[in-house]
Amino acid sequence: MSTMENAAATAAEDQEIEEYRPHRKWYRRPDIMVPVLLILLVYALLVGYVESPNFFRTKMEAPSGLVNFDWMWFFHLIPLMLQGLLVTIKGALLGFAVAVVLGLFFALGRRSKLPFVSWPVIAVIEFIRSTPVLVQLFFWLALERTIPVIDLSPIALLMVGLGVHYATYCSEAYRAGINSVDKGQWEAATALNLSPVTKWTRVVLPQAVPNVLPALGNYLVAAFKDAPMAFIIGVHGVLFFADQVAAETFRVTEPYLIAGVGFLMASLPAAWAVRQLERKIAYERV
What we know:
The chain is an all-alpha fold.
């Protein structure tokens, strides 16, 4: 056998070994665990250190006039806007965490073959999806004030309101992803006599979740845009900052414009992070 043939055979063997090398567990992959730990750290910092301010008071006298745009006044409002933005990000991320987990249970409940399980879940999903989130926030506030046992802070009410609202949308995304799994995968899991937990965690969800990540990313961005409405239940976020500054100074252009910049500062990194996560776990689609 010539040298070239030996080299070709060796390369083929190496390729075969590489092809059949098993994937490492997700918790042993630094490219997955490092972002997960960073996300957990962000959640811990938001929960532990971000507090809702009682008021937003500027230290600089507002410029005179109601028409001309003042750049110095605009940049002066940035620190106050960031305080309100952190509160908004905290409420949106906590609510979305609830939505991602609760939405999966909604999707599984809707797929149940037991009518007394699937029908109530379907009714809840359709009812919540058909009512605006603003009305639902008022409902949770009224429920908290009606039942003395329930004593939740405004940010906790926002977390519950956004979480339940977007859980219904996430459940539909999960349902579409689960339905996209090939029928042969279900039959193979049944033929191998896999337990329901193993079938869902090792076969179905690893193939379904990558397909729904773009939709989940859209819901995360939408949650950032809906979270500022929680000022009606006492959450002093970025929209409350703009309202208070505009009411005190009678200048509306600068505070609302910088509030819009704050929305971009929150939404664009979130959308980028979801795209990176989708790329990291794309191998599950194969």
